[in-house]
Design a protein that fits this description.
The protein has about 375 residues and is of the alpha+beta class. The chain has a single domain, classed as Alpha-Beta Plaits. It contains 6 helices and 12 strands. It has an 8-stranded antiparallel barrel with strand order 3-5-4-12-9-11-10-8. The longest helix is centred in the middle third of the chain and has 17 residues. The chain is globular and about 60 Å long. The N terminus is likely disordered.
Length: about 375
């Protein structure tokens, strides 16, 4: 766990199946300090719940720390098209339903400033959803890289070298059953601006024969593109892992109506979840589907720049979901934080040099813990 002290919020248990206890996430310091005085949290009816089960409080989003990030210096511009990506990485895991609300935003932001600095990373999406049966938080990461080799090197780094506060990333005790894969990108295409249109995402995955599936995947990608565009989707990735005999589709949807900062966007989530799966195009192959999950996008990362001088992460569903804030313990220069509004920001934070008083918590943008490239075995 990180060194800073978590602020826990009083959570209200859901009143009946299909409801979610809502965290009233705010970005003002006074509102955060006064949460204990605001009274019980309202519950939200989930119109897309298909089966009984109590969802965990959205506050448990704190678990999303599972997806950290940082490194050294970005090598790519954040707006480069997905069509140039040739590698991908994905992780899926759960967080306990009773996981306390650490400081969700600052934990993720601290990770970002190490993970997003790895060579070749174009962008990362952190998804979030809730298991309706046990309330666990379902999260992970979806990344695109410029090459498949760099995606594989990233996987090795995450598994074996990304150690914060004495614990390897995937050995953090609150990560339940992590499943991670490096991928070759058969095709990836954005139909709309990543900054405004990737609000929800759906992931499909199959176990396939060990014989190469590359031909059928390349042959059908244009048809997938046409279907995705006709449906108004905002992005699509087709991924292949030949050594593990896996295929995956990741696709993104925009908002289907106006957003409400007091409740999660169930309408957009449900529209994507209820739509026929794009992967139906492979039904004639006899593959075994192992995964089909629709989630909100919690945050989107872009390549890190030393001193955290690059593009700020996006938080397209916050509020109502938590997000970083001035005074959260981590200086996020990319968000415009400075000593004037954030006490953790020392005057030297953001110059890219580890100075006296700076550490990997209050100024991770300057204090670099990992070499740019993983050590060779």
């Amino acid at each position: 766990m990180s060194a800073y002290t978590p602020r826990l919020s009083t959570l209200t248990a859901p009143q009946r199946p299909g409801q979610v206890a809502m965290l009233q996430a705010t970005t003002s310091g006074s509102a955060r300090e006064d949460t204990a005085a605001t009274g019980p949290r309202p519950t939200i009816q989930d119109p897309h719940s298909r089966r009984p089960g109590t969802w965990a409080c959205l506050a448990v989003l704190g678990l999303l720390v599972v997806l950290g990030a940082t490194g050294a210096a970005a090598e790519d511009e954040p707006d480069e098209p997905d069509e140039r990506a040739r590698g991908a990485f994905s992780c899926d895991f759960a967080l306990p339903a009773d996981f306390p609300l650490d400081q969700v935003g600052p934990v993720i932001e601290r990770d970002r400033m190490y993970m997003a600095a790895r060579p070749g990373m174009r962008h990362k999406h952190i998804p979030i959803a809730f298991d309706p049966d046990n309330g666990q938080i379902l999260t992970g990461g979806r990344y695109l890289f410029d090459t498949a080799r760099r995606a594989r090197l990233y996987k090795d780094w995450v598994f074996n070298h990304f150690n914060l506060d004495g614990t390897l990333f995937l050995q953090r005790p609150y990560f339940l059953a992590p499943e991670c894969h490096a991928w070759d990108v058969i095709g990836a295409h954005d139909f709309a601006d990543i900054h405004t249109s990737q609000i929800v995402l759906r992931t499909e995955r199959w176990a396939v024969p060990h014989a190469s599936q590359g031909h059928v995947l390349r042959q059908r990608f244009n048809a997938l593109l046409a279907t995705a565009q006709a449906r108004g989707l905002s992005s699509i990735w087709l991924l292949y892992n030949k050594p593990e005999a896996l295929v995956s589709l990741v696709y993104f949807g925009d908002r289907v109506g106006p957003s409400d900062p007091t409740v999660p966007d169930f309408a957009s989530l449900g529209a994507l979840a209820d739509a026929p799966p794009l992967g139906a195009i492979f039904d004639d192959q006899g593959w075994t589907q192992t995964f089909d999950r629709t989630q909100w996008t919690l945050t989107i990362w872009f390549p890190f720049v030393l001193g955290d001088q690059g593009a700020a992460a996006l938080w397209p569903n916050s509020p109502p979901f938590p997000q970083p804030f001035s005074g959260d313990g981590v200086c996020e220069v990319s968000r415009g934080e400075s000593p004037a509004d954030s006490p953790e920001c020392l005057p030297t934070c953001g110059d890219g040099i580890a100075q006296a008083g700076e550490n990997s918590v209050n100024c991770p943008g300057d204090v670099r813990l990992f070499p740019l490239r993983p050590p060779r075995h």
